[in-house]
């Protein structure tokens, strides 16, 4: 039982230790305001990471999510500000477009047996390119709906505000947990990551599942894009570059095996929070360059991959004995 | 006229044909399986067993013939389709998902659910119930991969049966199980037989065939040799059907055989590994050729792998020149000046893209260490010397080895080890896949090598061949060295009789 959950427990321990270190340096980390901001600031990363967890669990990868976020922002800015589209209609439209985009990538990956890396790399360039076709400028979004949505928040004791966008992220995580662990779809995703051939032999609908996985990932990336546009109140073609890599890092730090088959959604949440924690610490510190976040993430990622390899080798050895 | 009682045939295959480019894998094969029967499917390498199974489970499409299940003609499109028709297969390497829980493996695709959510508790309860029927009491929430192969196989069987399998195909299920696990499996199979399931059992273990099967079907080179009730089939006949060789009325054997005397060069005492090979004793003197004979899967290659350190022995001791040595890896073996040419040249031996010269000096260079590079002049000398010595047919030493014929590749592989000046050489199927002319040359070469004082251990499925050059022959059966033949006893017939004996 313990062994099965070891990767998540290690991630949790890292988070707790990290939080205690932050707390020791900056007592204000105990305040609900810092905690609530941690959630709000990382909401978009968390939402993409849920989709990415499904993709990686199935043994794939999705490099297109950062571009999809940027495309979503640009699309919203152009349609709402330039064409006067109702923001809510624009949201629905962009979510549908992204789902279609993801389904297309999943279809290519399955039908032509092309590595997900290549297909989503093409998807990444395609979505980023489309941003520039729409506009090369950064367009501010001033629609009243934006102000209304970002103002929704629940006051927490101690001055913190649990914002709407933080709530959306937590809801997505809850939904992701249910989907991964309590539905047939979830079992199929794990099955695909365990062994594609065996899964097929056992009657798992491999094609349908693959398409749905990438559809989900792109859909959540677009949702993250919407959240990101609330956060920045603008659409910009160069936004969210490299977010796909931050997302993959969060998923791996959260204890999901890059080779697929093993991992949890809750681990990803902790992985995202660890990244947020490091970011917040460096902001509080004030003197450190924000690039130190990347260095810390790099070191952590490295440590986690080595750890996972070690665990896998140890369990292989005990399985033989 | 005798009236034959028509028993209902559960599965009826007539005139099944399947060809691949250059080989007829199945040539009008008939096969029948009754409900409540355990039917052994036997044959040596290339007999067509796996092709038959793959056609039956929809992996391959047949070229001709009919398959009827319960009198209905069927054409499985893929393994999932075959399973839905009622044909389940369990392979030696269990084709389930080690990362999912046991319960999920049993129920994937048909999990009990309510409002779109899987009822995990219900699924686990039912899984425990199913497995209890097989005498298995395990925590079904744990990942399948955390259990032994034996348990995984039982789970695979339980899954296939629970998916309403009428026909259960077991492809070498016992190959990696120990004695106790085999007994458990047999108890389960006999239970399934009582329930009217037809079981096709593929194995190389003759004792298991006689202990479990009701009838056997023997294939050879893609053709049906016969289907017989096991009770009326003497072992010797079964073996001769498999090997395609009648007992000669007068046993032929080599008139003169040198009795090599002296101290053994290499000796193994009580050497073995659990699940791989029963402990054996073996001693080989300089200038002696010892043959290893037995059916496919009897432990011949396993013996070679243990002796060369590819597999690490867990009991017994090894001696070279009477002194105890440790052989834990091929490196250790090479340091003791052992050589090994493996059975599968393509995957384990040659590096097809490298030149003949580079292939020949590979082992020697590895022995010297990569920093201590052999000078090119010496490399050329060695390569040319062996090309001449072994008569490797090539315009020059720089040709990629992949372009040579099988026999010449085999000779180059031999040269690789001879270049290291070994004292003890293991040849696994040295004549497989090479033409007749090269065949004779390799055999002459073997004889010449041992005249030079080399100790040789040769594995071959060709009984005549092994009888012709071996001074002694160790016969293996069911992963055991059962008997050692020497002197006048060495003949193809006596080898076959030994394989078939209890």
Describe it for me?
The complex is a heterodimer of chains A (321) and B (502). Helix content of chain A is 75%, strand content 3%. Chain A contains 14 helices and four strands. Chain A has helices at 6-25, 32-41, 43-57, 65-82, 87-111, 116-134, 144-151, 164-182, 184-194, 196-201, 206-232, 243-253, 265-285, 291-320, and strands at 139-140, 153-155, 161-163, 234-235. Chain A binds chain B through residues 4, 178, 182-184, 186-188, 190-191, 193-195, 197-204, 261-262, 315, 319, and chain B through 78-80, 83-84, 95-100, 104-105, 108-109, 111, 113, 116-118, 120, 142-143, 145-146, 159.
Question: Which descriptors apply to this entry?
Answer:
heterodimer; A: 321 residues; ABC transporter involved in vitamin B12 uptake, BtuC; two-stranded antiparallel ribbon; two-stranded antiparallel sheet; B: 502 residues; alpha/beta; Rossmann fold; 2 domains; six-stranded mixed β-sheet; 25% strand; globular; disordered N terminus
